[in-house]
Write a structure and sequence with these properties.
This protein is mainly beta. The protein folds into two domains: 108 residues, no CATH class; 98 residues, no CATH class. 11% of the residues lie in helices and 43% in strands. It has two helices and 17 strands. Strands 6-7-8-9-10-11-12-14 form an eight-stranded antiparallel β-barrel. A four-stranded antiparallel β-sheet has the order 2-3-4-5. Helix 1 packs antiparallel against helix 2.
């Protein structure tokens, strides 16, 4: 069965209800709650809308329902919106994000040292982890709480949680964002496979366009080496 997800993103409505909200004023707080309820009612969305009392930013989280996978191994799809996020290039619209999971390089020493610095951040299951090297190819989270085992090789990463579920990043060239002039200099590794201890899995395929990586399809309810019948396709227009 093929499930095609179309994203129709209506951003302007957020600003109607958030421009005049002030955290210091009790009336503004009541107006904030009323604005959230009115927006959700008129837009017909069922997600979680929150206004930051300090920045005034509207934050919206919309969970996208998918048919269940095998033994709970299924993708988690969440659309996030932040009205203060002005960074360009989001594939789901300005201010919006939909991240399936990734490991990326980070550096405090400027972009010129990006590939020389071994500083990394993991984004997995809607959580972000700053990584620290534990010796060799083994990493851990600086603020450990989920007890993840994190290992890297030449061009990929494997993260194992406490249940033994493994998350694979950058197994294929399409799932690695690299230096256009040198493919061995990798900047970002996308999540491309999740597998439990019983060999149930889902996998994600990607494609590259103008140096950027975009998700193509998710195949799930697979077992061992055989893809299952469930498929999610992303169509960019």
């Amino acid at each position: 069965m093929k499930k095609v997800i179309f994203f129709v993103l209506i951003i302007a409505l957020f600003f109607i209800f958030t421009d005049n909200i002030k955290a210091e004023d009790n009336f503004a707080y009541q107006h904030e709650a009323s604005a959230q309820n009115q927006f959700k009612k008129e837009a017909g969305f069922t997600g979680s809308l929150r206004v930051d009392n300090f920045s005034g930013a509207a934050n919206y989280n919309l969970g996208l329902e998918v048919p269940p996978g095998r033994n709970g191994i299924q993708p988690s799809l969440n659309l996030y919106y932040n009205s203060h996020d002005k960074s360009p290039g989001s594939w789901v619209g300005q201010g919006w994000s939909l991240d399936l999971g990734y490991v990326t390089r980070t550096t405090k020493e400027g972009s010129n040292n990006l590939y020389e610095s071994n500083e990394f951040t993991l984004f997995l299951n809607n959580k972000s982890y700053d990584l620290v090297n534990l010796g060799g190819n083994t990493y851990g989270s600086k603020a450990e709480g989920d007890y993840l085992k994190i290992a890297t090789s030449t061009d990929s990463w494997i993260v194992t949680d406490t249940m033994g579920t493994k998350y694979y990043f950058g197994q294929t060239a399409a799932a690695r964002q690299d230096d256009p002039s040198d493919s061995t200099r990798i900047y970002k590794w996308m999540l491309d496979r999740v597998e439990d201890t019983n060999d149930n899995y889902y996998r994600v395929t990607y494609y590259k366009l103008y140096g950027q990586i975009y998700p193509d399809d998710i195949y799930y309810t697979g077992h061992d080496t055989t893809d299952g019948p469930m498929q999610i396709s992303f169509n960019l227009e």
